[in-house]
Amino acid sequence: MDTRTGLPVVGMIGGGQLARMTHQAAIALGQSLRVLANDVDESAALVAADVQLGSHTDLDALRTFAKSCDVVTFDHEHVPGEHIRALVAAGHKVFPGADALQYAQDKHLMRRRLSELGAPVPRWAPISSAAELVAFGLPAVVKTARGGYDGRGVFVVNDVEEIIDLLASGAELIVEEKVELRRELAVQVARSPYGQVAVYPVVETVQQDGICVEVLAPAPDLAEDVALGAQELAIRIANELGVVGLLAVELFETPDGLVVNELAMRPHNSGHWTIEGARTSQFEQHLRAVLDYPMGDTALAAPAVVMANVLGGPDGGMSIDERLHHLMAAEPGVKVHLYGKQTRPGRKIGHVTALGDDLADCRARAARAGHWLTYGKALEA
Amino acid sequence: MDTRTGLPVVGMIGGGQLARMTHQAAIALGQSLRVLANDVDESAALVAADVQLGSHTDLDALRTFAKSCDVVTFDHEHVPGEHIRALVAAGHKVFPGADALQYAQDKHLMRRRLSELGAPVPRWAPISSAAELVAFGLPAVVKTARGGYDGRGVFVVNDVEEIIDLLASGAELIVEEKVELRRELAVQVARSPYGQVAVYPVVETVQQDGICVEVLAPAPDLAEDVALGAQELAIRIANELGVVGLLAVELFETPDGLVVNELAMRPHNSGHWTIEGARTSQFEQHLRAVLDYPMGDTALAAPAVVMANVLGGPDGGMSIDERLHHLMAAEPGVKVHLYGKQTRPGRKIGHVTALGDDLADCRARAARAGHWLTYGKALEA
C-alpha cells in the first residue's frame, strides 16, 4: 500500500505502451503505476513517476521490484515462468500466474490445452521434421511455439523447402491447417482472483501482414448467438486456465464456425477501443482484476467504435507534431493516443479511435486520422 | 520540444488535481506534463515523471522551470502577474498571459472590466468602509478582491457588525447585491493563441457551503436561446480578455436572466464531467489551446452526465480502499477519479461521474457512489 494515499501499488513488468496506458487508468483510481522498464526512453518510463530500470529476465531485479508492489502484473508475456514462481514462493502476488501465463507463452501448450478442453481450434500437430509436415498436409501454417508476436514466428507454407532452415534450427514448432478465413474476431474478458468475470462485446479485427490495423466494435453483422458463444468461450477459457487479469481471445470466423487463433493475457491491441468506447477501459479493468476489485461495466459507450493503429511510415518531410495538427484540424472528434515512440516504418507508434452512430462513418474518420499520422498527408478519397 | 518524442513539453505550475488530470490527457497526446510542485506528495507529483520542486512565488524557480518547457500554464491562479511578465520578457510562452489572468486573480478588476464590456453582472461597488457598505444596502455579498476560492473570501452580510474586523483589515473588498438565485450554471470555453474557440454545453452546478458538489450536463430545462446566450457570453469574455487556454464562466440564473459570478482561467471543477462526458476533455482541450493545436469536439458523449465531488468525510473506520470496493460493487458503471490526497473533512479528494440516458438515474448513481467514498456507508434511500 502507498502510505501517502492509502491505495495499493500495482507494478507492471515492461515499459511499453500497455504500461503507459495502464498508468493513465491507475491515476484515475488514485494510484500511480510502478513500472519495471529496460530503458528511460520506453513509452511508460517517459510518463510514470515510479520507474525501476531493469530486465524482465533478471530475477534479482524482479525481486527488488516485487517487494515495493502489492501486486505484480505484465506489459508483455516474456517473463520466464520460473521467475514468476520464485516471486510467488517469496510471498508476492503475481497475476496472471505462471500456470496460466504458460498458455500465452507457448503455442504448443495452448493448442494442447484448448484441445483437451474441447474448445474449437484449427486442426494442428506438433512437428519436428519435414516428413511430419508433409504428412500433416500442405499448404499449412507453421508457428514457432515460443517468442512470436505481431505475425513473427508465423509462416504460411506451401512447400517444405520454404522452411527448411527453420526445421533445422531446433525451434519447437507446431503446424495448423490453413483455415478458410471469413474474418478475425476478438473477445476481451477480465477475471479476478475471486473468480468474477466481465466480458466485453465481440469485436472484428482487421490484420495486415500479421499486424492488427483496425478494430470494429461491436463486430458488425455478427449473429447474436455466435457473439454470445464467443463470449462464453472466452469466459470458459479464462476460468479453465485460471487467468487473473485481462485475457484476449483472438478468433477466426470460418464457414464451420469460430476457432481460437491466439491468447494474450494482458491488455491487448484488440481492446484499445475500450478507452473511450466502453464504460470501463481494458486498462482499468486489468487493474481492477489483479487487485480483486469488483469489475467495471463493459457496455459500449457509443453504438459504433473504430480503432485504427498508427504505424511508423515514411519520413515524408513532416514531423509527428505537424501531422498531429493536420489530424486535429481534419478530425476534431477523433481521439488520439501516441505512445511517445521514435517512428520506425511498421512500428506501432499510436492509435486513433472514432466513435459515433454509424460504423462506416467511424471507419472513414479513423482511417483518415490514422493516415495523417502515418503518412503526413491526406487520405485520397 | 522533447527530442525523444518530437512532441512539445507543456509545463504546469502547481501540483494539484488539475495538473494530475492534465497529465493523463498529455499522455494520450504523446507528451508528458512537466509539473512545478511544492511537495513530492502533491496530487500531480505522485504520478508525473517530470516534476520540479519549487514555489510558484519564487521567480528563480519559475525561470528554471520555464526554460525546459515549450509552453507554461497553470494549475491555479496564484502566480504573481509580475513573475508571469518576467517569464514572457525572457522569451517564454505563458498562457493565459498576465493581462488576462489578472481578471481571474482580482474580483475588483474582473467586475470593472465586465461592466465596461456590458456583460451582465450583479450590481456591485468597491468598498473600503462600513459607511460605503451601508450606503450600498444590506443584505449584500462582500468579497475580498484577491485570494478567495471554494467559498473562502465570500461573506453574506446582513449587518455591518458581522464584518467589522474584515473592514479594518485593509483587505481590498467589493460588495455585490444578493441576487435572487434560481440556480447556478457554468460554461467552459477554450481559446487558442490564434483565436480559435471551442465552447462546451452549459451545465448546472450545485453548491454547498460555497463548494461545488454536483454538476449536471447539459443543464436541465434550460431554454435553447438562454443556453446559446451563455455560450456566446463566454466566448465574448474569452475574446475580450484575451484568454488562452480554458475559461470557466460561472453564472447565476436569476428571474432577470443570467449574471456572471466568477471567472477561472484553467481547467475547472465545473468541467470535470468532460473527461468521460464530452468527446474532448477540458484537460486535453486546455493542452490543445495553450499549444495552439486545433480544438477538439466538445459534443456530449451521452445524453446525461452527472459529476459529484468526493469530499473528505468522517473517519468512520473504513479505509479509502475499502470504500472504493463498495462503490465499485454497487455502481459498476460509475467512473471514479481519486486525487491521491490525504483525507481531511471537507477537502476535495476526488470525483465520480455517471453517464446515461436519464438525468435522474445518473444523479442517483453519482450520489450513491460519492456517498460511499465520502462516508464509507450506503446512502439511505
UniProtKB/TrEMBL annotation, chains A, B:
Q: What class of enzyme is it?
A: ligase
User: Which reaction(s) does the protein catalyse, per the Swiss-Prot or TrEMBL entry?
Assistant: 5-amino-1-(5-phospho-beta-D-ribosyl)imidazole + hydrogencarbonate + ATP = 5-carboxyamino-1-(5-phospho-D-ribosyl)imidazole + ADP + phosphate + 2 H(+)
Keywords on this record? ATP-binding, Ligase, Nucleotide-binding, Purine biosynthesis
Q: In which pathway does it act?
A: Purine metabolism; IMP biosynthesis via de novo pathway; 5-amino-1-(5-phospho-D-ribosyl)imidazole-4-carboxylate from 5-amino-1-(5-phospho-D-ribosyl)imidazole (N5-CAIR route): step 1/2
| Molecular function as annotated in GO | 5-(carboxyamino)imidazole ribonucleotide synthase activity; ATP binding; metal ion binding; phosphoribosylaminoimidazole carboxylase activity
Keyword Nucleotide-binding attributed: yes
GO CC, alphabetical: cytosol
Which EC number(s) does the record attach to this protein? 6.3.4.18
Q: Which InterPro entries match?
A: ATP-grasp (IPR011761), ATP-grasp_carboxylate-amine (IPR003135), ATP_grasp_subdomain_1 (IPR013815), PreATP-grasp_dom_sf (IPR016185), PurK (IPR005875), PurK_C (IPR040686), PurT/PurK_preATP-grasp (IPR054350), Rudment_hybrid_motif (IPR011054)
Q: Which superkingdom is the protein from?
A: Bacteria
**ATP-grasp domain mapped to chain residues:** 111-291
In which residues is ATP bound?
Answer: K107, K143, E176, E177, K178, V179, E184, N261, E262
The Gene Ontology biological process terms listed for this entry are:
'de novo' IMP biosynthetic process
Q: How does it assemble?
A: Homodimer.
Question: NCBIfam families in the record, alphabetically?
Answer: PRK06019.1-5 (NF004679), PRK06019.1-6 (NF004680), purK (TIGR01161)
Q: What does this protein do?
A: Catalyzes the ATP-dependent conversion of 5-aminoimidazole ribonucleotide (AIR) and HCO(3)(-) to N5-carboxyaminoimidazole ribonucleotide (N5-CAIR). Catalyzes the ATP-dependent conversion of 5-aminoimidazole ribonucleotide (AIR) and HCO(3)- to N5-carboxyaminoimidazole ribonucleotide (N5-CAIR).
Q: Which family does it belong to?
A: Belongs to the PurK/PurT family.
This protein's name: N5-carboxyaminoimidazole ribonucleotide synthase
Organism in which the protein naturally occurs = Catellatospora citrea
